[in-house]
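Today's session is about reading a structure prediction critically. Students often jump straight to the picture, but the first step is always the sequence itself: look for stretches that repeat, for charged clusters, for runs of hydrophobic residues. Only then move on to the predicted structure, which in these notes is written as discrete structure tokens rather than atom positions. Here is the chain we will use throughout the hour.
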Amino acid sequence: MTSSSSAVSPARSPGKMSRRGRGEGPTTYDFRRPIKLSREHVRTMQIAFETYARSCGTLLTTRLRVVSSVTLASIEQLNYDEYVASLANPTVIAVVSLEPLPGSVLMEMSSSAVMTAIDHMLGGPGGPQPERPLTEVEMPLLRGLLERMLGELRYGFETLVDIQPQLKEIEYNAQFLRAHQPGDACVVATFDMKIGVEECVASICLPFNTILPVLSRTEAVVLSAAERASRDQALRNLTDGLSAAPIDVAVRFQPIRMRTDDIVDLRPGDVVPLGHATSRPLEVTVNETVFAHAVPGNQGARLACLVVPSPKETSPKESGRR
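Below is the predicted structure for this chain, in token form.
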């Protein structure tokens, strides 16, 4: 049976642009492995990745000083081994962490596109480039470019979650990279990338378990600029209100234990001995929570206390030696 919206597309040819979803016709749908991403989830991710693609295209144009473009081609759900099988060898794969989200994200670009980008950064004309490992001079240039692209990824996802992308390592052979288990579900975003005259396909692979909780939250809604400004203003008002709210603060001696009949027999003028040492500061509490220590005093005609450093806790061994 066939369906016009598929989760799996044929493997792409290395380096050249793949025209997925543009007149290819219906593709096979596997009912034994149904799609878990809902249409709303796909739409939400589409907006985030399209924002990333536009800003990334602008970044490449200004950074490489050559007309470049990045457009979102598709969003698919694949198993990790299927994604790895679709990659060319060699290729450039950046392993990225998206704090505070768990797991590792893969950002892949063809070797020809990477070599073309580096050639432009070094003042070259671009064009066909040899496929070879990067030198010690070229690797920092690539890392700097990838880190700038990761900054644009953070901008694209800011309406969903505040992430801190960090580049961990760069690999050339996907078969040697075991970032996930072969059967793990992944969400793969594919991009048509053009750097000067060089055209290629790039991709971002996110673990399904990493991105699904973000998409399932009620906050995962694209807000307009006015709605975002209103939410930020409400947060500031709430923070200011809590900061100015009055609370009851108590300064107390160390509590003592008394029998019930002694408490009932208390009369004015009776003296109750306290077990609080004169060298021990008083406790400053809010709602039975000790947050500071102080010594008693006065300010003019009013009682007051002076906040002092908290006393160090005495270990059981030290207590036994006293």
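Discussion point for the tutorial: The first helix runs from residue 39 to 64.
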